[in-house]
């Protein structure tokens, strides 16, 4: 069965790293048909909208999407696309690889972030002049979905430690509900977990990241803590992510369009190639995914490396090295 993958490079280095990852996907066994679509700043300049209806439809109809990054229009592109795929879970694996000068070489974490609500509910208003409010939405349904996903992810990926980030001591109603639901889910599965106040966890992640495995987070906490952890392993050029829905999913590097290096052909394609590996896993090609990951790890360990990792290689040289290891 051929799988349809929507390819949305977006802007800036998205237009360099996404084609590199597509070249890698084309060398593995998984039967994939690519459908290209446009979104982002350039699209807005040309068509008046950052996310054309045609792109929404292409993403909705595909089995999965590989997205690069959008520039100033990022919020107008990626937030709607995450909802087009019905994504309730954002997964961000943060692993240290040999050869990358990671500050914390033992790091092997995966953030499982609630992707639909919390303080990103979008419910903001001006109460009176000089007073604005934001509604923090937490539902039992979304809490259950992220808890189920997080514990399942830990089992599938061999993580023994599950930590649940919260601030229920202050946000008693909302994070109180979140923790109650997590407890129910864990009890039903017979799963063990720890809870951690999200501010203290930020410190602990820096002090001893190796003590953590899967970290299940409300939306904002997951956004912040996963970026913090990125700093432990050599930066944004290495971090993939998955936006998972029940029937569709979108995969993207955590980084943006990197305007200062865009067009130079030196962006690190590793984050996007690793995102493509997550995509392969999602559509059922675990062994291809594993081969791609190992090829990237091999190239990171032995070179060639792009300038963000202290090397002098181009995006194309890294892509070719990964493809060589696969063929
Ligand atoms: P950024 O991730 O684009 O860049 C941050 C730093 O990391 C820069 O020094 C950049 O050169 C470097 N970097 C990032 N990816 C790299 C790679 N693959 N290889 C080598 N170096 C890399 O974040 P920034 O500068 O905050 O945002 C730039 C633009 O990207 C903004 O317009 C922002 O809106 C957009 N953005 C879009 C996102 C998305 O579409 N999901 C996510 C984050 C930012
Ligand atoms: Mg962020």
Can you walk me through this structure?
It comes from Halovenus salina. GO terms for molecular function: oxidoreductase activity. Keywords: Oxidoreductase. The protein is α/β, with parallel strands linked by helices. It is 42% helix and 21% strand. Strands 2-1-3-12-11-4-5-10-8-9 form a 10-stranded mixed beta sheet, sandwiched between helices. Strand 1, helix 1 and strand 2 form a beta-alpha-beta unit. Helix 1 runs parallel beside helix 11 and helix 9 packs antiparallel against helix 10. The two termini are 22 Å apart. Magnesium ion binds next to helix 8.
Q: Looking at the structure, what is the overall shape?
A: globular
Overall mean pLDDT: 96
Strand portion, in percent? 15-25%
- Count of β-strands: 12
Q: Structural class given helices, strands, pairing?
A: alpha/beta
Count of DSSP-assigned helices: 11
Ligand set:
1,4-dihydronicotinamide adenine dinucleotide, magnesium ion
Order of helices and strands: EHEHHEHEEEEHEHEHEHEEHHH
Helicity range: 40-55%
The CA-CA distance between the termini, in Å, is 22 Å
Task: Report Rg.
Answer: 19 Å
Domain Isopropylmalate dehydrogenase-like: 4-322
Keywords: Oxidoreductase
Organism: Halovenus salina
Family: Belongs to the isocitrate and isopropylmalate dehydrogenases family.
Topology:
Layout (H helix, E strand, L loop, with lengths): L2 E8 L3 H12 L6 E5 L4 H7 L5 H9 L2 E6 L4 H11 L2 E9 L12 E7 L9 E5 L2 E4 L5 H17 L5 E5 L7 H16 L4 E4 H10 L6 E4 L1 H12 L9 E6 L3 E5 L16 H13 L3 H17 L12 H12 L1
This protein binds 1,4-dihydronicotinamide adenine dinucleotide and magnesium ion.
């Amino acid at each position: 069965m051929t799988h349809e993958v929507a390819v949305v490079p977006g802007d800036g280095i998205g237009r360099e790293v996404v084609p590199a990852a597509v070249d890698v996907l084309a060398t593995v066994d998984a039967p994939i048909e690519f459908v290209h679509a446009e979104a982002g700043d350039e699209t807005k300049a040309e068509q008046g909208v950052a996310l054309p209806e045609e792109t929404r439809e292409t993403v909705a109809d595909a089995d999965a999407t590989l997205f690069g990054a959008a520039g100033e229009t990022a919020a107008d592109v990626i937030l709607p696309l995450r909802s087009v795929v019905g994504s309730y879970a954002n997964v961000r694996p943060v692993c240290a690889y040999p050869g990358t000068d990671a500050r914390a070489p033992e790091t092997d974490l995966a953030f499982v972030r609630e992707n639909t609500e919390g303080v990103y509910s979008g419910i903001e208003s001006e109460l009176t002049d000089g007073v604005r409010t934001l509604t923090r939405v937490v539902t039992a349904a979304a809490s259950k979905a992220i808890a189920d996903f997080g514990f399942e992810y830990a089992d599938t990926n061999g993580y023994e430690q599950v930590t649940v980030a919260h601030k229920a001591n202050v946000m008693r109603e909302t994070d109180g509900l979140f923790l109650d639901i997590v407890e129910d889910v864990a009890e039903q599965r017979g799963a063990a977990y720890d809870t951690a106040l999200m501010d203290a966890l930020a410190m602990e992640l820096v002090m001893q990241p190796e003590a953590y495995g899967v970290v299940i987070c409300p939306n904002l906490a997951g956004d912040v803590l996963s970026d913090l952890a990125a700093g432990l392993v050599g930066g944004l050029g290495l971090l993939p992510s998955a936006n998972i829905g029940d029937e569709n999913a979108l995969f993207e590097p955590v980084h943006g369009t990197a305007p200062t290096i865009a067009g130079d052909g030196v962006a690190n394609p590793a984050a996007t190639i690793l995102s493509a590996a997550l995509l392969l896993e999602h559509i059922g090609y675990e062994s291809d995914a594993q081969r791609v990951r190992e090829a990237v790890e091999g190239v990171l360990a032995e070179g060639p490396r792009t300038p963000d990792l202290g090397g002098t290689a181009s995006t194309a040289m890294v892509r070719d090295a990964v493809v060589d290891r696969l063929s």
